[in-house]
Amino acid sequence: MSRQSLDKVLKHLYDDVDTLKGVLTQNEIDMKTRFMLSVTRKLDRPLTTDQDLVTFLMSGCNGMSKAVSRSQAYRDIAAINLITGNIQLASKNWMRHMIVEGAKEIYQKALSRGDFKGAAAALDKLGKYTRCDKEDETMDWSEMLPPVFEPSDDITLIDGLDVMEGKDIEKERKRLRSLFNRLSADDVQDAEVIQDEESDAES
User: Residue 21 phi/psi, 5° resolution?
Assistant: First the structure.
């Protein structure tokens, strides 16, 4: 896949296929189909490995698109990861979600069976996992001290400013004042009075 083709597919990734005839080639439309099916699979199953995705692409996305070679599947994965980002970074949050939802489901099933001991155990696990059994941590505002600024005439404390060694500072100030005044005077322009046509006609 060329970079130009990839850029075209990514630009039209969410467009309807029927509107892309004449815009994308058939190969690019096939690529777009594979990308969308693979992105959907990764979002539905965040723990999907690259090897699982290779098998998925080589099978033609379970018969929903054209099958590709192993090398093409790996090239597709590189592009798919551009779209989804590193979804593996979200896997920990996904696992937390699964644990909470699983504990809630166990609690409901235990209640429906009249297993109050099991329901209590599920709530206990859920409470400990979500730290509901502990007091909320509060900020110790006394530890937050404002920064202390000390005045200084040392300009080297400011990044990018250096001491002008060997120069007469007062002479340099006069030169800069003169330059500034001259430039300001050059920029001054007289205002131009503009009259509209109706004012001219009345006069």
Answer: -70, 125
Q: Could you state, in order of their start, the residue ranges of all structural domains in the chain?
A: 3-85, 91-129
Residues 6+ apart with CB under 8 A from 12: 20, 23, 24, 32
Q: What is the DSSP letter of 159?
A: T
CA-atom Rg of the chain in angstroms:
35
Dihedral angle sign, alpha carbons of residues 31, 33, 34, 35: positive
CA distance 78 to 55: 15
Burial of 24 (0-12, 13-18, 19+ CB in 10 A): buried
83-132: pLDDT as tens digits: 877 555 556 666 777 788 888 899 999 989 999 998 889 888 888 877 77
Given pLDDT bands bounded at 50, 70 and 90, which one contains residue 57? very high
Contact 113/41 with Cβ under 8 angstroms?
Answer: no
* Cβ pair 13, 35 in contact under 8 A: yes
- Please tell me the pTM assigned to this model: 0.43
